[in-house]
Fold this protein.
Amino acid sequence: MNPRQDFPFFSKRPELVFLDSAASTQRAKPVLDAMQDFEESHYSNVHRGSSTLSEEATESYEQSREIVATFIGAQPEQLVFTRGTTEGLNFVAQARTYASVLYTELEHNSNVLPWKMRARQTFLMKPTDLTITPDELNEALQEHKPKLVTFTHTSNVTGITNDVKELCKVASDNNVQSVIDFAQGAASSPIDIKKVPCTFLAFSSHKMYGPTGIGALYGADLEAEKPFQFGGGMVDAISENNITFSPSPQKHEAGTPPIVQAVGFAAATTYVKEHQRYIKDNVKGKLAKALTEALHSVPGVSLVAENTFIGSFTTSHHSHDVAYLLGAHNIVARSGHHCAQLLAKRINPTGTVRASLGIYNTQEDIQQLKEALEQTMKKLA
């Protein structure tokens, strides 16, 4: 079975070759159906309501939290719903002021700026290659002695996955807290937080066939963290001189939460879990290899990393020009720095063209990309 049939987008736009899943994936029909059913039959605000409908909505919302938490091997009380990975990382940076933070050259801006703005001191680690090794991390921790280290699980520029289990062990051995940016890995690389000794982990729904506007933050001990937003639904009692916060995770979710999106997020994690074997064998296996071979075959194209589901490449032309002309052939790819300017500048100052795979892509998509890229390079010559 080809999972492409699970995505209504492609029946509406059959002419497009969508190779932009690293930016945001299309929505799976089980996700859309779950959200529509909730909207039409169960919608109400959650918590604090005594009606049967409010109780139904609350049950669906909290059940969604349990499903998403289980997806990463966590307990529900260890998972806070956020607006996405960016807000999750900002949560950690805002909840306390770290004296010093170590980050790497491979990071998305969302895993750089919060620390630059909030930590008293930051240190940049520049890996020798396009991956973070435990030895290099240990050396950096020994040298800088930060209170926290943060790193990407999977690069949104190269598709290379770091051994986060070993990296977190190195951090723990150095008595340093660790944060994992799991945004790019959630759709393709299962993780069991019980075996990965990180302090925090953040990811987004829209990178894994779910809705935008919602993500999750795992915290090993969220009860110990201070809230960084304040409003309704997060307190048990308030008086003129005293505030009693609700237990975690409620104390970290001020205001009306993204209820419908939470239902969709849970459906997305279920969908990914059900298709893990297909993703491993095809998206990260056969298709990734085919993408590498196709890009290598086009004269004038230099691939950044091989055999990954993210095929970023450079040419002698500006990345925006290449992507624009590919668009004329109905190829949806992305160009530029991909919000990872530190890494992009290391690879190519003008950025790269990025063709990224999803569960719905096919060998035919890759062939069309190859043919369109050949014609584009000839036109630019």
